[in-house]
Amino acid sequence: MPAAARDLGSAAVRDGGPAAAQAPRPSAPRDRGSAAVEFAGFLPVLLLVGLAAIQLGLAAFAAQQAGTGARAAARTATLDEPLTTPEAAARAAMTDWVARRADTVQAPPCTPGAEVTATVTVTVPGVLPGTGFRVTRHATMRCPGGPSGAQEVGTEVGT
């Protein structure tokens, strides 16, 4: 075979031509396991992102449940003859695990024609140590006996 043909053949192998698919690729023993090492280095970051997402979900759920409890407490406080206390109504409106973590449930007595504001504070459990915090929600309703009766004024988002 002439030298020019041999040079073309080696150029085809270098450039990825049809001969490149047939040529055995030498294995690089120093590259073995590099993907596992890269994954092991990235795994803590991936776990932190996943745990942060879980923490955010817990916080959102606890805040929603605290708002529901505050509305139930305010509604019960505005009744003329309530069957339960505002605190018991707030805890009954929340799920068990949130109700157990409710630190504060306040609803002052209702004065005719005035407004009553109920406050519920819930401790959000931390997924990682030191990441727990508290959420507070308020709900305000008018007391009966005023010009507009007992209606919900609105809810105020707390911290």
List keywords for this structure.
single chain, 159 residues, alpha+beta, four-stranded antiparallel β-sheet, 5 helices, 4 strands, 47% helix
Describe this structure in words.
The protein is of the alpha+beta class. The protein is about 45% helix and about 20% strand. It is built from five helices and four strands, in the order αααααββββ. The chain has a four-stranded antiparallel beta sheet with strand order 1-2-3-4. A hairpin with an 8-residue loop joins β1 (about 100-105) and β2 (about 115-125). The chain is rod-shaped and about 95 Å long. The model has no long low-confidence stretch (mean pLDDT about 80).
Q: Strand order within the widest sheet?
A: 1-2-3-4
- Categorize the overall geometry: rod-shaped
For the record, give the distance between the C-alpha atoms at the N and C termini, rounded to a whole number: 84 Å
Largest sheet: 4 strands, antiparallel
Number of helices: 5
- Topology as H/E string? HHHHHEEEE
| Share of helical residues | 40-55%
Question: What's the mean pLDDT score?
Answer: 80
- Rg computed from alpha carbons, rounded to a whole number of angstroms: 33 Å
| Strand residue percentage | 15-25%
Number of strands: 4
- Helix/strand-derived category reads alpha+beta
